[in-house]
Amino acid sequence: MKYLSEKANNIVIIGFMGVGKGTVARALAKKTYKFNIDTDDLIESMQKQKIKFIFKQKGEEHFRKLERQCAIWLEFCVRNTIISTGGGFFVQENIKRLGKVVYLKSSFDGIIKRLQELRGAKIKFAKRPLLQDLDKARELYEERIITYEKICDIIVDVENKKINTISTDILKQIKGLDENN
Ligand code: S3P
């Protein structure tokens, strides 16, 4: 496959389920006049099926293969875009080639509190198969946070922060990275 251009200048948002990756990505898109796409949305539209049912009918392993396919497509076909990702997408070996990786950091309890306070909270929990058992989800969180921090270019603490503060902080840090390169 040929590269569209040398460098994928996207912003890639990673972090645990429910931390607000989609919300932050939409705010960044608005601020920067860029488009925003979400890996879960891409997979759902390609499969014509909700993530919840992909997990139920074909299993997690199949879903991870779809994420891999999505990562390859993003690398070769997507530029200048804000990409929000599913909480497990960070394991993709090409993630750093997709663009600047931004990790949204929050405590597990902070994430659960955020979800509980959202309008339609019940649906927000129900659509996430790996958030059905909160003890298991906490374990998964503990397992993942080390790698989230290790692979990202930027860490942004989002707990109890306003969306405008978060998006301004991200853009400031990205500018700093660009100036140092
Ligand atoms: C997952 C996170 C979900 C979704 C799928 C698996 C994960 O996305 O991709 O349910 O492994 O953490 P969100 O992070 O948007 O909830």
Your description of this structure?
This protein is α/β, with parallel strands linked by helices. The protein has a single domain, classed as P-loop containing nucleotide triphosphate hydrolases (Rossmann fold, 3-Layer(aba) Sandwich). 57% of the residues lie in helices and 12% in strands. Helix 2 packs across helix 4 and helix 3 packs across helix 4. It is globular. The model has no long low-confidence stretch (mean pLDDT 95). Bound molecules: shikimate-3-phosphate (S3P). Shikimate-3-phosphate binds next to loops.
Q: How would you briefly describe this protein structure?
A:
This protein is of the alpha/beta class and 181 residues long.
The hetero compounds bound to this protein are: shikimate-3-phosphate
CATH topology: Rossmann fold
Q: Indicate the radius of gyration in whole angstroms.
A: 16 Å
Q: What is the count of DSSP helices, taking H or I runs of 4+ residues?
A: 9
Approximate helicity band: 55-70%
Shape label: globular
Q: What's the level 1 CATH class?
A: Alpha Beta
* CATH H-level superfamily: P-loop containing nucleotide triphosphate hydrolases
What CATH architecture label applies? Answer: 3-Layer(aba) Sandwich
- Helix/strand/pairing class, anyone? alpha/beta
Beta content comes to 5-15%
Unreliable stretches: none
User: How many angstroms separate the termini?
Assistant: 28 Å
Order of helix and strand elements from N to C terminus: EHEHHHEHEHHHEH
**Number of folding domains?**
1
